[in-house]
Design goal:
Blueprint lengths: L1 H27 L6 H10 L6 H9 L6 H26 L1
Length: 92
């Protein structure tokens, strides 16, 4: 198991370095990434525990700005934390 963790850490670090390098190159080349694509990327990277919320976002008719989607995600995260604390007490 320790070998797995070491390999995982090594390759995650390498991937992060590659991602950072690519982002710097894109910025140097003045490549503009559409906000709609940025929002789609953020939504696609949500963990599987957010599946229901992810589906809800996909079915909304409005286009989200990055700031708006981040606000939605922050509110949802706070709601999930609150539910994790209070719902078990209510269900007892």
């Amino acid at each position: 198991m320790e070998i797995w963790k070491a390999l995982e850490e090594k390759y995650n670090t390498e991937r992060q370095g590659t991602d950072k390098f690519l982002m710097m190159k894109l910025r140097d080349l003045k490549v503009v990434i559409l906000e709609l694509l940025q929002v789609g990327a953020i939504i696609s990277k949500l963990p599987s525990s957010w599946n229901n919320y992810w589906k809800k976002l996909l079915h909304m008719a409005e286009d989200f700005a990055v700031e708006k989607i981040l606000r939605h995600l922050r509110i949802e995260k706070e709601t999930q934390k609150r539910d994790a604390v209070y719902l078990p007490k209510v269900l007892k």
